[in-house]
Design a protein that fits this description.
The chain is of the alpha+beta class. The termini are far apart. The chain contains 2 helices and 7 strands.
């Protein structure tokens, strides 16, 4: 399965790019996708508990299924005032 991975701010720094194509073994839930991100991008692992994951532009529920061709966005928390 092929997806487009978009990463912002600290997530982009952790994986070394703001966007990449990512091959996965098959359809995964967002929960399983988080686990796979930690394996494929170890520097991202410490950030994962705080990241929101959007699928096709919508923040996804952990049980949501990611399908072939999806656009996945890694969204770190924002701060400011």
């Amino acid at each position: 399965m092929h997806v487009r991975l978009l990463a912002f701010a600290s997530a982009a720094q952790a994986i070394g790019t703001a966007a990449c194509d990512w091959q996965l073994p098959g359809e995964l839930s967002v929960r399983e996708l988080r686990q796979r991100l930690a394996v494929d991008f170890p520097a991202l692992a410490p950030l994962l508990p705080r990241l929101a994951i959007a699928v096709e532009g919508t923040v996804a529920d952990p049980a949501a299924v990611v399908r072939d061709g999806a656009e996945i966005a890694l969204l770190p928390p924002v701060s400011g005032g």
